[in-house]
Amino acid sequence: MARRKKGQPVHGWVIVDKPQGMTSTQVVGAVRRIFDAKKAGHAGTLDPMATGVLAVALGEATKTVSYAMDSEKTYRFTAHWGEARDSDDAEGKVTGTSDVRPTKESIEAVLPRFVGEIVQVPPIYSAIKVQGERAYDLAREGEAVELSPRTVEVYEARLLEVPDPDHAVFEMRCGKGTYVRAWVRDLALALGTVGHVSALRRTRVGGFSEEMAVPLVMEGGSMHIPAAFEHLRPISTALDGIPALAVTGPDAVRLRSGNPILIRANQFAKITEGQSGDDDLQGLTVFLQTSEGEPVALAEIALGELRPFRVFNL
Predict the structure, then answer these.
(1) DSSP state, 176?
(2) Beta bridge partners of 129
(3) Could you count the other beta carbons within 10 Å of the beta carbon of residue 159?
(4) Where are the domain boundaries for CATH 3.30.2350.10 in the chain?
(5) Which segments of the chain belong to CATH 2.30.130.60?
(6) Is 107 in contact with 168 (CB distance < 8 Å)?
(7) With respect to CATH, is domain 12-71+208-237 assigned 3.30.2350.10?
(8) For the whole model, what pTM was predicted?
(9) What is the structure's pLDDT at 276?
(10) Fewest CB within a 10 Å sphere: which of 71, 144, 213, 269?
(11) What are residue 124's phi and psi, to 5 degrees?
């Protein structure tokens, strides 16, 4: 007989302001315990030294994690010039030094080269898997780690301030898979010096902003979130930009059983708003919910049908 999974059927998103010194996995574990949830996951790792927006999915919201992970992210961070570190951040060992300190003018002159589609080699202390093992685990064991270059997209990068010759503060909007630590490392080299990230804060993940984020509070030897359930956001929160349609009770039953339904005339009219033609609809993902707003499924449009590929079991 299968063992019953511990926890309660809690579904939704909790936007946490991750404290410095905790891993993303530790934060997810803490949130799961606070809500006594059966299942939890997160939408994009933050390094232990980093703070800011960590979107934690509970229950059926974990089925929408990939949409949050694929969304745009915003970071505010500080580059420390003159020291290269093996982790490309302040927690690593110093591997090189330089007396060169870039000026504000030289930084701004080079910055355009690090916006748009750029190629970067991820830090060896990263969660990327190498032959089934995490790169950071291999690096900590002293093994040589070689990671392949990858193309990422930086939508915007701004120099905010130069508080002193050793530091520069930036803000960046970027796409999935962009490593701020690698960006600072490569920027430093282009400026004729070396550098690493000394402070990092994520301020936005898709529609999740730092204004939404709630702190983890340590009290009595354990962590909690004040008025926790007031901060539980709907499953649909991660689905900004995906068309939403209401379905009837009988259609909801069919969809939850994994069966397709025909697109109704009123649904078709709503979907076609803003579309240039019927061809645009093929393969389009839509979010289906009841008229009361209860999530039903994510479905794909194909040959006049709504075909569910991810069903929400609430």
Answers:
(1) T
(2) 134
(3) 14
(4) 12-71+208-237, 73-205
(5) 242-311
(6) yes
(7) yes
(8) 0.88
(9) 54
(10) 144
(11) -65, -25
C-alpha–C-alpha distance, residues 199 and 24, integer Å:
16
What stretches in the chain show pLDDT beneath 50?
1
Closest C-alpha among 81, 110, 85 to residue 98 = 81
Per-residue model confidence (pLDDT) at position 139 = 61
Query: Which is the CATH superfamily of the domain at 73-205?
Result: Pseudouridine synthase (3.30.2350.10)
Give CA torsion, residues 219, 223, 229, 233, to 10 deg: 140
Give residue 306's pLDDT. Answer: 92
Query: Radius of gyration (Cα) for the chain, nearest Å?
Result: 23
Residues serving a catalytic function are 47
Sequence letter at residue 276: S
Top-tier CATH class for 242-311: mainly beta
Residue of 295, 223, 216, 217 lying closest to 54 (CA atoms): 216
How many other CB atoms sit within 10 Å of the CB of residue 36? 11
Q: Name residue 307's amino acid.
A: R
The C-alpha torsion from 22 through 24 and 27 to 33, rounded to 10°, is -140
Tell the burial category of 276 from Cβ atoms under 10 Å away from its Cβ (0-12, 13-18, 19+): exposed
